[in-house]
Specification:
The protein folds into two domains: about 1-85, Rossmann fold, CATH 3.40.50; about 95-223, UDP N-Acetylglucosamine Acyltransferase, domain 1 (3 Solenoid). It is built from four helices and 21 strands. The protein has helices at about 10-20, 55, 70-85, 215-220; strands at about 1-5, 25-35, 50, 65, 95, 100, 115, 120, 125, 130, 135-140, 145, 150, 155, 160, 165-170, 175, 180, 185, 190, 200. The relative contact order is 0.10.
């Protein structure tokens, strides 16, 4: 049984804990956050420690990390935690729920998570530190680059590409061969039929570009 530290102690960590506590492959022994957030406590009985003390409390030789951070600042916070934990010597566990359908032969990126009901078709590629939520479809020969978040029910159609650090909302669809630029926010139920520019926002009503950048949108609307 692999010992696991969850990187995060908020909503995403709470959800992942619910999956992992019923998975006989894993034993959750704690969670880690930036030192400033230790006071907020943990969502479970496992101890929560700050990044400055995690190596002493849970040595990298004894446990692996599952990324349980959210998508704050268009996944920038998640990427930062991922990279700092790797620098401390931790192996970032790639987690596939037993009810996920991973049919691609391409290795999943380090530290990525695939939730129940998700389908990765033959030829699909998923980069490092991606979160593929339930019932997502990553179709044949599609590419999801590093540090992306695909919310439940999203469809990445065949030969499409999602650029690094992008967020794709619930039930959004990326059409065949379309490339979503890096650091994009694609709103829930949006249909993207044309390639997008980096740092863009596309919302559901029309899928047209929003007037502000993705970073500005995240700052004022909390994504």
């Amino acid at each position: 049984m692999q010992k696991i530290i969850l990187a995060g102690n908020a909503v995403t960590a709470h959800i992942l804990y619910g999956y992992l506590e019923d998975d006989a492959r894993y034993a959750i022994i704690g969670c880690v956050v930036d030192d400033a957030y230790v006071e907020s406590g943990s969502f479970t009985a496992v101890p929560c420690v700050g990044l400055s003390s995690v190596v002493e409390r849970f040595p990298p030789s004894d446990a692996r990390v599952i990324m349980a951070a959210g998508y704050d600042q268009v996944n920038a916070v998640r990427q930062s935690m991922f990279e700092r934990l790797k620098a401390l010597g931790y192996i970032m566990e790639t987690y596939v729920h037993p009810k996920a359908n991973v049919l691609t032969k391409s290795p999943l990126g380090e530290g990525s998570l695939v939730m129940p009901g998700a389908l990765l078709e033959p030829g699909a590629t998923v980069g490092a530190d991606c979160l593929i939520w339930g019932n997502v479809v990553v179709a044949h020969d599609a590419v999801v680059e590093d540090h992306c978040w695909l919310a439940a029910g999203a469809v990445i159609s065949g030969m499409a590409r999602v650029g690094r650090r992008s967020f794709v909302g619930v039930n959004a669809t990326i059409a065949n061969k379309v490339e979503v630029g890096e650091c994009n926010i694609v709103g829930g139920a949006a249909f993207i039929s044309k390639c997008t520019k980096p740092n863009a926002v596309h919302l559901a009503r029309s899928g047209e570009p929003f007037r502000c950048t993705a970073e500005e949108y995240a700052k004022y609307f909390g994504v």
